[in-house]
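Risk register update: the risk of archive-format incompatibility is retired. Evidence:
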Amino acid sequence: MAHPTGANRATVDEDESRTALPTALAEQFRTAGIRDFSIDDTDRAAYSSDASLFRLVPAAIVFPHDDDEVARVLSVARRLGVPITSRGAGTSIAGNAIGSGIVLDFSLHMNAVLDLDPEEQSAWVQSGCVHAHLQKQAKPHGLRFGPDPSTHTRCTIGGMIGNNACGPRALGYGRTGDNILALKIMLIDGTVVTLDDSDASTTFPRLHELVAQNLGTIRTNFGTFSRQVSGYGLESLLPENGFDVRQAFAGTEGTWGVILAAKMRLVKDPSFTSAVVLGYADMVAAAHDAPLLKDFPVAACEGLDSRMLDRVIDTKGAEAVPALPEGAGWLVVELTGEDESALKTETQRLISESKSLDSAVLNARAAAEVWAIRADGAGLVSRTPDGRDAHAGWEDSAVPVDHLGDYLHDLMELLEEHGLWAIPYGHFGDGCLHMRVDFPLEDPNGGQVMRDFMVAATKLVARYGGSVSGEHGDGRARSELLRLMYTPAALDLFAQVKRLFDPQHLLNPGVIVDPDALDESIRLTQLPLRQELPATLAMAYEGESAGFASAVHRCTGVGKCRADSAAGGGIMCPSYQATRDERHSTRGRARVLQEMVSGDLLEPRWDSPEVHEALDLCLSCKACGTECPTGTDMSTYKAEVLHQSYKSKLRPMKHYSLGFLPQLARLVTPLAPVVNRVSGLPGLTALAKKMAGIDVRRSIPQFASTTFRKWWTTTAEAAPKSRANAESPAAASLRPNAEVVLFADSWSNHFAPRILAAAVAVLEQAGVRVRVIDQTVCCGLPLISTGQLDAAKANLSETVTALDATDDVPIIGVEPSCLATLKDDSLKLVADEASHRVADRVQTLAQYLLSIGAELPDLSGVEALVQPHCHQSAIFGNAADKELLARAGADTEFLGGCCGLAGNFGVEDGHFETSVAVAEVALLPALRKRGRAAGAEPRTSSGTGASPNRATESGTDVSPNQATDTGADDRLQVVLADGYSCRTQITDLSDTEGVSLAELLAWGWGLQPRR
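Archived output:
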């Protein structure tokens, strides 16, 4: 089908020998009128795994629009005898959402909140409705859906029902199954059944009779404690529980039927909450104290290991972690209540009665930061300190909370006996334990090591009356182990129930009943997944045992790239946000790259068409490198793939025209007025754009007649205080030893020199001596993003050498992407001691001004809509900008999401629709809300309503020390965007222009006139 954002979904693979079943399915789907499906190898690779260890390549993926299409797909499956697997966000950790037949992805089309009744406190939702979307709809009514797994930003309600998901607040609100009011399901024969509180025995008389014949088995095996999720929850079918088939369906993992929609119970948000952190000597001590919580109004209690925080600090810096009490392990406890005074009393009582070493009551901000770290737990513990992979498998065991301390103690000893490593964490309040174990799956005996440990651990958890699964389900990881946990009679009952619902064994086979072996379909053991592709890698992959081939396996499939991250101020993954297409998520691309290095589904070639198709819409925003809990760095992988694919070959013209634009700008600058006038001729401009591989709807940047460098060495030579006579009055205001090197990046130098001039003015106003290196250097980012890494390395090496020779003073810049290149890419591409020295010196303007305690102008009359640059968000963060603007008194709104232009991405032919769609995630709606957008149709001409020499008029001809009336009594509304590409996108798609932080500060001081 043609995707609305311009990404084409192929339907038929040409290789008939490899895709006989996929081709047959495609023919059947067309005949049946199925509107959206794929048998394309790129999609099949993207859907070959979920968040688990396992890999099963589907024959086809169907994206049903409605119930009728689901029925037609099931008809095809029955006719051809093809298995069916239901899938939501694919965040299942046990291999529950993959299969070798047809995968039904409900998240693309069947994802709505159908009805929300505030009075009844209920909501009907389709199977693919994302948990966070339901919460967003319920919040205005003071309601919420109770259970909230760590994947709540992307997991679907149908998937939560399939696994009977819980999350940290199951203590307060129960499991997903406990909150089902009604279910609309489709049985394998196409029958649609709505299950509610009416008598289900008339609908399922054989099931009712089977339960009556096995009451003793059910009562002695099932429902022994809240986190017993393994197997089928047959206790719900007991007479004393009302033969509740609704609840019994929870946790069946798609093996009984297909969930179409569900009516879920909503609950009122508590009036008051209190977040307490209790510190302990280790995690075992914390686990021993967990039973205490049963006597308190606790909604959630999570165990958190200090090593998880160490990983966050390594990735994002110490400022990303709030101050916590003393200890190596913590219990993070959320108490709730309707009486604030009583809640405070209970909070203090919990602290006094606990056996913690230390404690702290967190404010709302610190609590949110801790919960966010906990939510990323699966990714944070996926690598050992020395860089080895740690895997799921034994990541979801549970015991009655009274036994948690002893069980954890024995489990850690068992790990040590088997020579394995893991970090424990999880839902300690109800006895559920998460961890990732460093099974050596790449070793010849790695599978056996895993099997031996899993069997021993199952015997251990059974000894404590526990369950191999506490909320993730059994899937392919643990279904085989049920024989060690349940009696033969219970296992036989599972099989009988399964046959009643699925006599052909087509619904998610290999799970729970007649299970696959736990080591049967593991990615790392069934394929040579660490195969090195021929070539010398251009990038350095620090800590990776096999360089690129192991780096692409960082992705464990947790799927955070599918979340609506923009709503929370994040960026990842802009192309998925725009397309809602799995292959255009970070995870989907990682799966395709994994297939490439394996040489199984895809050929092990750098120039694999499927790989290039998957990478084409990657904006190289860098967000996944820091926002993904596993650090999957897709922008680096894309650059490497492009480099290797085109090395010593003719490239697309856009690689040359955009990759070498900084070099071209140097040549064009002497002719800037002529070039600017010529670029305004529509016919000639359109032809030039087509030849250069640029979308004709994009504007051509206006070259400055006077570059910043020329201004620096001529016009402003006598003006700046930093170069004034040391005995002059101006020099007296300089701070002792306050000196910076201002990096004059190519974009600002040639296209927006006013911004560099503004930075000089602001720095000198702060008493800082400004230096600019004599050499005309470039960071080489356009060459990196187009994969011309040899040329990029030469550029970047020259720049690093020049900057390294400027003494040990801070390096400041105004273009975030160029600063990020010096801070991040130089360490991968140049990768020498000089690059590390330079990277350590690089700061943003806001970071530097705060570090020296600079006096700030009064911006109390400013209302700023801020579009942060993706690279700044990923590499530097935006905390300094937020703090600086707040101190200056500005009223700010920081947007999440990418602007959509992303350097050369949105300029390239074929990317315009996706670029605009990305902008529609956050930026354009915000502009329209403020009454600034031009309308539905973006501008397609190069005109911006300004003279061609706008840059010169607004910046280079103005001395940094010139005072101008800023109209401080007026409210000033600005769209603040430091990135050149962000400002270009704003200008192209709206009737406003972006300004930089340097300009805004200069205006505040009256050092530059407002534009």
